[in-house]
Design a protein that fits this description.
Length: 245
């Protein structure tokens, strides 16, 4: 069950929900402190710069992010006809950085980096204070601007894991990659508690892990049931196991 706590900020009560050991900040609560309320979230997420930022976050932390869907979205972003909501973003791209739920106690919640970006969009003065604080702490201009040129390389050099999971209920196996396989296991267990992580193997880059993943997906394509889930014989599981040793 998700744990919740409250932050009291300038008279505004902001909900922090802990889900799978990660904190999600209520964008709805933050937005309610401004004229326009929760409708501001949809205006923010329609912004092309916002979508690019969200994609960077997902590429860093979500190996199951649907990059093809993002590319199609960004092509339309900025036009007068473009419509996007948090729920649409999640459904189309398999995003995990934002969570949206309906109902009386529903709302839009996001990881801290995303909530920070939303706050900057809401209040330029908050952005100025944040920048000044960073400059005052570092006083090292090389470090301050270092990240401007390293975002793409950061995505490429982050270690990535090839993994094999099994759903004990239907006996299917999942062959995939993840930057955080144990976190991935927990997210899948929230949907099906019978899923367990069997093997992992670390690769220095996501690109290297992806090559082995694609090789296995192609080799066992005849066994594919859906997506990354396969019906495998014990002899085939043993073959895959050899890659992890």
């Amino acid at each position: 069950m998700a744990k919740k706590r409250k932050l009291e900020v300038n008279g505004i009560s902001i909900t922090v929900t802990e889900k799978n050991q990660e904190d999600f900040i209520s964008l709805t609560d933050i937005a309610n402190g401004f004229e326009g309320g929760s409708s501001l979230i949809e205006k923010w997420i329609r912004n092309k710069n916002t979508i690019e930022f969200l994609a960077v976050w997902e590429r860093l932390y979500n190996p199951d992010f649907n990059d093809d869907a993002y590319i199609e979205i960004i092509k339309s972003a900025g036009s007068n006809r473009f419509v996007m909501s948090a729920k649409q973003w999640i459904q189309k791209t398999n995003a995990i950085g934002i969570v949206a739920s309906a109902g009386r106690y529903g709302g839009t919640n996001a990881r801290i980096e995303i909530a920070f970006e939303f706050s900057i969009w809401l209040n330029p003065f908050f952005k100025m204070i944040s920048i000044k604080r960073n400059i005052d702490i570092q006083q090292d201009y090389s470090n301050i601007f270092d990240g401007v040129f390293k975002v793409n390389s950061l995505i490429l050099i982050q270690p990535c894991y090839l993994y094999l999971m099994q759903d004990l209920k239907n006996k299917l196996y999942k062959i995939g990659i993840s930057i955080r396989p144990f976190y991935r296991e927990k997210t899948l267990q929230s949907e099906s508690p019978n899923i367990i992580l069997i093997y992992t193997k670390e690769f220095s880059t996501q690109s290297e892990a992806s090559k082995i993943e694609n090789m296995l997906h192609n080799k066992y394509s005849k066994n594919r049931v859906r997506g990354e889930w396969f019906s495998l014989l014990l002899s085939e599981v043993s073959e895959i196991k050899s890659l992890f040793l």
